[in-house]
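Progress report, Aim 2. The chain analyzed during this reporting quarter is listed below.
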Amino acid sequence: MKLQKKYGVDITNQRGRQFVVSDFDDFDYIYAMDSTNFNDIISLSRNINDASKIKLILDELADVDTADVPDHYYGGSQGFENVYRILDSACNIIANKLK
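Predicted structure tokens for the chain:
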């Protein structure tokens, strides 16, 4: 069963894109999935204010022993499910902070 159907999340119209410098102006919070992307985004920051918006998404979870979101393709048959659960937990924490 596809996760989209299993959890009722329709991602049909979502598209990925590269981060651009103007994203610092458009967003208050910027979450990177891994340290490589974090460092790439930091390198684009124009000042301390820009850099302060950037966090690793798994830093929101106290009980995860890695800073990087695991690669779902190398997680065996449960790879996608495990990554979904981790990111869902992190996103719920973020959403609760923003209430």
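The first strand starts at residue 30 and ends at 32. The helical segments are 3-7, 23-26, 35-44, 48-52, 79-98. These observations will guide the mutagenesis work planned for the next reporting period.
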